[in-house]
Automatic annotation (TrEMBL), chain B:
GO terms for molecular function: 5-oxoprolinase (ATP-hydrolyzing) activity. One of its GO terms (biological process) is glutathione metabolic process. Residues 213-506 form the Hydantoinase A/oxoprolinase domain. GO terms for cellular component: cytosol. It comes from the Bacteria. It holds the Pfam family Hydantoinase_A. This is Putative hydantoin utilization protein.
Amino acid sequence: MAAQVNLDDPITLRITWDRLVSISEEAATTLVNMAFSSIVREVGDYSCLLMDAEGNSLAQPRTSIPVFIGTLPATVRHFLKKFPAETLRPGDSLITNDPWLGTGQLNDVTIATPVFIDGELVAFSGSIAHMSDIGGTLNMGSAREVYEEGFHIPPSKLIDGGRPNEQLLELFLSNVRAPDQVQGDLQAMLAANHVGAEGLLALMGDLGLHRVDELAATIHQLTENAMRRAIADVPDGRYEASVDIGDFEGDIHVQVAIEVSGTDITVDFAGSSPESAYGTNCPLCYTYAYTVYPLKCLLEPNLPNNEGCFKPITVTAPEGSIANAQRPRACEMRNRIGHMAHAAIFTALADVLPDRVMGHSGSAPVTVDVLSGTRADGSRFVENLCVNGGTGARPHGDGVIAAFPGNMSATPIELLESSAPVLFEAKEIIPDSAGAGRYRGGPGQRMVIRNIGDRPVTHSMFYSRMRHVADGVLGGEPGTPNRVLVNGEPHPQPVGRHDLTPGDVIDIELPSGGGKFPAAERDREAILADLAEGILTPEGARRAYGWEG
Amino acid sequence: MTEKAEVRDTFRWRVGFDIGGTFTDLVLLDDATGGTYRHKTLTTPDDPSEGAYDGLVSLLELAGLQAEDLTSLIHGTTLAINSLLERKGARTAFVATKGFRDVLVLGREYRYDIYDLDGSPAPPLLPRSQAFELDERVTAAGEVVRPLREEEVVELARRLREEAYEAVAVLFLHSYAWPGHEREAARILARELPGVSVSVSHHVSREIREYDRGVLTAMNAFIQPRAKRYMARLDTKLRGGGFTGDWLVMGSHGGLMAPSVAGEFPTRIIESGPAAGVVATADFAKKGGHQEVLAFDMGGTTAKACLVRGGEPSITTDYEVGRADRLLKGSGLPVKLPVVDMIEIGAGGGSIARVDALGLLEIGPESAGADPGPACYAKGGTEPTVTDANVVLGLLDPGSFLGGRMTLDVEAARTALARVAEPLGLSIEEAAWGIHEVANNKMAEALRTHAVEKGVNPANLTMLAFGGAGPSHAYSLGKLLGVREVYFPAGAGVYSAFGLLTAPPTSDFVRADRRRLDEDIDLDAVRAAFEDGFAEALTVLDATGADRGAVRREHLADVRYVGQGSELTVRVPDSFLSGGDIAALVGEFEEAHRRRFGRILPGVAAEVVNWRGRARTEAPAVASPERAADAEVAVGHRTIPVYLGRVPGRRDAPIVHRAALPVGRKIDGPAIVQEDECAIYVGPDATAVLDTHGTILMEVA
């Protein structure tokens, strides 16, 4: 065994750290490649994390979104409360999907596998993944309490000393629509945890390490120092802004106040709407995740993901606020609040960080439509449809068509049509939609879907930008709204589920992103290029930019 | 290495020539003895066939041969990849099903770097203004919802002619399974637009997913006119010079194809050059009986690696060209065709070291490139690079670089290294050691991740190292991975050109066909899919002059559990094809799944997503010339102080010239084995020995 690693040596630390990140990426690759859940693959709603024996994070993959960076360590601490270290043994794996102990919704399952050396607990290898199905009503966001949203697993042993907890598994799998897939997703997570644990043990062996808590502390400290330096560059002050989105019963208000003081930032959601009677409720863990993500992008995007990065940032919201919803509120659509935090944060900080902010994202909150029903041969189908609107104008350029702050790739239409009896008449860019500005937003997108089967197709959707479009920043213009037509008639409230009868056509316009800086500052060449590419029509160019040719 | 050719009347000479970005490498092989002549000449970018032809003439002169004496020429080329990277191709129109002209521009709607707010997906190959639509539509089940109208195609052709398009890419939805409309459109467009290249999607790829197939079709159309012209020009030149044999082109999949096919489908030769190095590694593996070999190729800007198992290169269909960030998936354009799986594992010799925001040492992504190059080149570079670190550590002999034609400036390297040493509080040597170690560890990590994906234990690998910087890093990288045996082939500088001569003619196909494996299977339909694919593949092979009787057929399938997101490619057992033995196919899948994920899911049904096939002839047997065990030759009397880390500090290591190394004589590390374009670092606990085939084996303790 090699000598004890010297953490003061910047070379050794760099190499050790790279290797930790790499191990977490090996775990993540295993999870993504084996996973059944399309949300894991397409939306990146998963994470793999290596932690010390107390749950402090060591490393996370570079590619997965930091949503769960704060949640997994917290979940492990909840596990340890119920299953103290001395009760854990090799071959155990712990599971929960409790929204308030986990990630804010039932669909995300957390599994943590304790790692032992000579019988002593030294680390955890954990993963979170969005299950293919969790039971519940599938009626997007319309549940009134969390009980309606699916199967709930309190912190439990999924594997006990190498023996699967058959009773729990059977109970779980009997409560979901796709037991094979869910079983596969659980196995993929266990496979990923195993890869993470083995990699960590190999590294500890190579370095002669018996504990990793000191390593975790060193890594966090360096990261925290770098983050604090970045925050120190932002002028002290209190910066406020708010945004609104539509919901079942009207508007939801998201209000932030950002207090920058020295090397600390506090983000408070006081003044936001109270808890919703429906599923648009955000437990604080998720509010936190989507608050620190845009802040990291603004402040120090290249820092590694660990709690050190977020230690200088405090996120608060009054209990009972929509950004800190309490048990047993329904919270399936928590992303609708989380995804809007970026907009309020960008506007609040626009004046002090004008070079770094973006226009508001038209692809926030991210939307995933679900098409389900029965084919002509009687077989069932359930397909997710991911299509994005435009992002806001980027710090130094135009917006694009992609999800932000989520990151969801588009569903290939050929794949969807191969499974569901629908036909896409179009999937195309909407001209003249992009929020104008020196840098314009990403344009909106339109899709037209026809039921070509002989029985109804159930379509679930949740569109929130009917009245409230993505705003511009620093004088940029707003984007365009959602619009949904069924057989040419405007759909009054495109939330929840409805049936498309055979021959029905649904025409959906996805919102565009907001611009940045006044439209009058837009480069002539850029306007000409947009005209040539059909992003602008001559009429649209006149309207948006006063373009006379 | 070989005596002047005495026997002029026996056709036994073949030439491999590999046109790279900077150099064109040529190897002349005597198939009777395995003897080679090698030649390196500068690439002529305006017309690469020019430099290649001149190089060929020089090579023949060197060997005392005439063009008539050659039986065949094998060509590796960067033509396709350069066209794509530089975006220099034909003026191309993209024609899609009505409602889908934006397929290329919308792309995957994915941000490859989630933290970089200024990052954006790879720009589309063709802009929206060059996209057109035709009002046709076929469903996934093959039902024609709207027929293709000839008059509409004719009208579009008129417009494309007026707008002076040189190429057309056609993408109709579901044509991977129902190509009727695309065939019809191709026929009409060819008739209406003489002289314009037409690529239709089902011809280029039979895989489902409109974006991936569309990008590939657009790429094909975009580079096709240039590729066709190039192949014709080279042919004329070769024939004019008296060459009467066959010439073939190396494909990205590691097999050979006729120049006519390469011209028609230039998307199949995108990784022509790198594939050759991997194929050479496969040849090495087969000859030496090495089960698992890692090809490690480290040059000036990148380090790449490929696994070769059982003498077969690892092949991927998940490849991207033109990545904005070379290590980030999704930042380039997808190429869903079989490509040798040569993954980027890290920085090259020119990559620049710096201190990052955390106060730690970081390498790359910036590179000093060839100009100004590393500081030690003394061409104006001031940033510390990986090569500068190697010079300071004594891994490169300043006086022997490029055969002594260039002297490395050690002081300049030290000055550059001070830029990272000072802020880190390290000595120059410690900083250099750190750079070397960090670079090696990053590569080791990338390789470990890749190995996990492939279900391989890195410690079981044998390494074959080549490229300008590979031999300097092979020892340390091998050590980190637990690799015991590292080989350095003879002529590592022209190794790819040599690889061209070891490849067999090969043709691949894929047929999308989703079928569950827990119910009765329509075996006739499966056989028909394979028959159809092999018929196409054989036509491609015929053009290479391959003997149909000698063609080997491989049946493969992409299989997954029903509902799983990604597939594993497995062999289709004979018992399945002949008698519908579903259990045997499921068994192959479960074995692969267990290898990759350490587990299977009993009771969960599996399904096939694609059938794949590969037709090829045997790889040509290339003899290895035996070298007599030399009489004792004087081994280096010069030494260089090599830095071995903080504790041992520097130790004197002998400098041995490879050409002067006697066969069978064991060199103990630390030592430097010097070649013209690279230097092998033999570590303190390693030994190196030259075998009778001219290969050096380094054994690491």
